[in-house]
Amino acid sequence: MSQETLQMVPDFEKEIATVEEKIAHLEQISKEENLDVQKEIKRLKTKLNRLIGEAYQNLTPWQITQVARHPNRPHAVDFINALIEDFVPLAGDRRFGDDEAIIGGIGKFEGISVVAIGQEKGHDLDTRVKHNFGMARPEGYRKAQRLMDLASRLNMPVLTFVDTAGAYPGVDAEERGQAEAIASSIEKSFQIKTPMIATIIGEGGSGGAIAMATANVVLMLQNAIYSVISPEGCASILWRSADKVQDATEALKLTAQDLKKIKVIDEIIEEPIGGAHRHPKAVFDNLRAALRSHLTHLLTLTQSDLKKQRTEKFLEMTRHLKPAETKPKKAKAGD
Q: Are 79 and 121 a contacting pair, CB within 8 Å?
């Protein structure tokens, strides 16, 4: 683990990361110098399993947020490589250029031709800069719209993998119509005639995430987050203090468990103890099973029923949310 990656590891995982580093170092020594250090490796692995079990037993919302942002967590490109066969990437929005924060193309899922679109953060400094940390500009969302149109014309389901802190807030993005691009992506999601399944794989931040998650079915990994604003942004607005970030995380109800209760998402994809960054294959397998099940059902619906179901799904979210109760104001003298 590089020093850069170690610095990004959540605080509650620092000791775990240190033990993992020691194990990796001993295994390397054993391989290169043919030394017998298996007894020490076994002891450290026992300690590691205990630490992971204790740390992940009862994660707080803030700790879940940190896991969702973990530098080693699998990203969109990893999910696409694991789940989509014969993937052919397509680039550009046919208006301005290509935005590498959003990757997309055509391929096959379980033998079914699909369009896959994901927000890619990158896995090291070079790729994070290349993909702009997963924060798309307008051309990225317009590329997504182009791919959705392609899917609708060719009658191919759309699978999206959402992982972004939010849309890029730079001046150049605003000048090219960032808000309009996000709104148009949401509108396009309601218009397409084919099944659409979105999966929140890491961070689902603000409108930048909703633009890719207005789907017939919304899945969410167990240790992912999904909210209208980042905890840091919420704390700065409501309390004007970064010290209140944990309070903001609690208030936002951004965990998969909270969002399932209020029907913002449809299903939680289980992650083994230790998170998706330690058990990516198990998470890929769990998601594959869920996608297969939901896609099989959605493919039985007509085009008009798919559009209707998608619209009703999001209208229903507003119907069951009760407004905050307010006490009637006392009448003042002379009123």
A: no
Structure tokens at 131: 């993909």
CATH 3.60.10.10 fits 66-319, yes or no: no
Nearest to 94 by CA among 46, 138, 36: 138
Alpha carbon 45 to its chain centroid, in Å, reads 30
Residue 177 — φ and ψ, nearest 5°? 90, 50
Residue whose token pair is 């530098």: 71
What DSSP element (H or E) covers 158? strand 158-164
DSSP one-letter string for 42-60: HHHHHHHHHHHHHHTSS--
**275 phi-psi bin (left φ>0, alpha ψ -120 to 50, beta other):** left
Its pTM stands at: 0.88
Specify whether the CB–CB gap between 118 and 104 falls below 8 A: yes
Going from N- to C-terminal start, the domains of the chain cover 3-55, 66-319
Q: What pLDDT, on a 0 to 100 scale, did the predictor assign at position 27? A: 85
Beta strands 217-221 and 85-89, pairing class? unpaired
Q: pLDDT by residue (tens digit) across 4-52?
A: 555 677 888 888 988 988 998 888 888 777 777 888 889 999 999 999 9
N-terminal to C-terminal alpha carbon distance within the chain? 70
Q: How far apart are CA 189 and CA 125, in angstroms?
A: 32
